[in-house]
Amino acid sequence: MRKDDLCITVPTFFRCPISLDVMKSPVSLCTGVTYDRASIQRWLDGGNNTCPATMQILQNKDFIPNRTLQRLIEIWSDSVRRRVCVESAELAAPTRDEISDAIDRVKIEKEERDDREVLSKIVRFGRESDDNRGFLAGKDDFVRLLVDLINQVDFKTTSAAKSLVVQEAVKILSMIRTKISDRRRFSNLILNGRDRLTVIVYLFKTGNVELKIDCAGLLEFIAVDAESKLLIAERDGVITELMKSISKDSDLSLIESSLSCLIAISSPKRVKLNLIREKLIGDVTKLLSDSTSSSVSVTEKCLKLLEILASTKEGRSEICGGDGECLKTVVKKLMKVSTAATEHAVTVLWSVSYLFKEDKALEAVTSANGVTKILLLLQSNCSPAVRRMLTDLLKVFKVNSRSCLSAYDTKTTHIMPF
Q1: Of 4, 15, 50, 318, which sits 20 to 30 A from 177 (CA to CA)?
Q2: Residue 142: helix, strand or coil by DSSP?
Q3: Host H or E run for residue 26
Q4: What are the TM regions of this chain, as residue ranges (predicted)?
Q5: 115 falls in which pLDDT band (50, 70, 90)?
Q6: pLDDT at position 295 over 60
Q7: 204-258: pLDDT as tens digits
Q8: Do 103 and 122 contact (CB within 8 A), yes or no?
Q9: Quick check: helix, strand or coil at residue 34?
Q10: What percent of the chain shows pLDDT beyond 70?
Q11: Residue 129: strand, helix, or coil
């Protein structure tokens, strides 16, 4: 049994053999087996004349209340209720006044164990509501205090308690990051002081899934301009770890946060070229093709990455390379995913087929029945920008959109791509 996050083990002999629930009114049959009164009554009312546990034929159907067992169950239930009340009170999120006092007590020179207990309390408080997270982000010097806690740490020599303090600080910063009003100032705090970026990257490499997600979120948030994006992307191991985190075997939330981070840091050309050299396009194609590890959000982010990388000659070459598998996968995602996915997919096709007229792109799109889907999309409620790109694509494929659309109109009604 579970009471929120409290685990309760029920003694086996307190459970009814029929319902497997804790017995409310235990009664024994002539066979000596005890059942909950309601469960055994339903069994007998159903026309059965045997003991459900032993399958012996009942000599009589009389019930004998098992008062000893009932008393034991009552004593156990009372103790469980008391435990739940105590532990629920301990797990309850603290008040704002308590948090304010806790923040005042957090000092870098204090014992790490005390810091971790206070920070754990703050984590519970922040998870309670959006307002609580806003309260924490707006608290005087609290963000600076957390940033100072993640100064350069040698995790090979530092104490376990100090390591846990740093992890708690990263969790809180990630949790409240969207409530931080001055994003650029926060980015500078992380990137310009005592190599705190190294600590976040190390935790991203070595942490559990939850901590990896928090670190990826922080890295995305501090990527505010070309300089910060280059600093993050060119830090040793970042790209490798992000790409490892988008494998089909990874946690879905980790895949989404890693893709968001890759999108955030990928705008500088140097980063794009590095991502292409690391074969990101192939990994993204596999992710798009794998229905088990893909969601609408993952699909949108994958297509957005391809759109970004298609702005380079090297990226277009990779997208159109091989047997055109990447482009064929993009064509499959043109419809019935989401508006954003359609826009990203159309932009990819437009970049490689119309804007830069890659011959291999035309072949791949045609073989994947892309022209038909383009025509169908033109009949949908797509945005003006998407409609212009679709019209451009039809010109490349030398298709007369008016005549083709007239032919489709005789067979179909209004078609929605989503």
Answers
A1: 4
A2: helix
A3: strand 26-28
A4: none
A5: confident
A6: yes
A7: 999 999 999 999 999 999 999 999 999 999 999 999 999 999 988 889 999 999 9
A8: yes
A9: strand
A10: 87
A11: coil
3-state helix, strand, coil in the chain (%, to 5): 65, 5, 30
What pLDDT digit, counting tens, does each position of 339-361 carry? 999 999 999 999 999 988 888 88
> Helices (DSSP H) in 291-349: which residue ranges?
296-309, 313-320, 325-332, 339-349
Tokens, residue 284: 């993204």
- Could you tell me which residues come within 8 angstroms of residue 112 by beta carbon, excluding any fewer than 6 positions away? 159, 161, 162, 164, 165
What is the DSSP track for 350-410? IIIIIIS--HHHHHHHHHTTHHHHHHHHHTS---HHHHHHHHHHHHHTT--HHHHHHHHHT
The residues near 190 (Cβ < 8 Å, ≥ 6 apart) are 147, 196, 197, 200, 218, 222
Q: Which residues contact 369 (CB under 8 A, 6 or more apart)?
A: 331
- The residue ranking higher by pLDDT, 128 or 312, is 312
CB 159 within 8 A of CB 201: no
Terminal C-alpha separation, the chain: 42
CA torsion 394-396-400-402 (nearest 10°) is 30
Picking from 53-57, 310-314, 346-350, which range would have the lowest pLDDT averaged per residue?
A: 53-57
> Minimal CA–CA distance to 136: which of 103, 91, 182, 90?
103
- pLDDT classification of 78: cutoffs 50, 70, 90: confident
pLDDT at position 175 is 96
Burial annotation 101-127 (CB, 10 A radius, 16+ → b, else e): ebbeebeeeeebeebbebbbbbbebbe
Bridge-based pairing of strands 64-65 and 26-28 is antiparallel
CA atoms of 281 and 305, how far apart (whole Å): 8
Give kind and range of the element (H or E) at residue 215: helix 209-222
**pLDDT score, position 414:** 43
In the three-class reduction of DSSP (H, G, I as helix; E, B as strand; rest coil), residue 58 is classed as coil
Side-chain half-sphere of 169: how many Cα atoms within 13 Å?
A: 27
Q: Find out whether 342 and 374 touch, Cβ atoms under 8 Å.
A: no
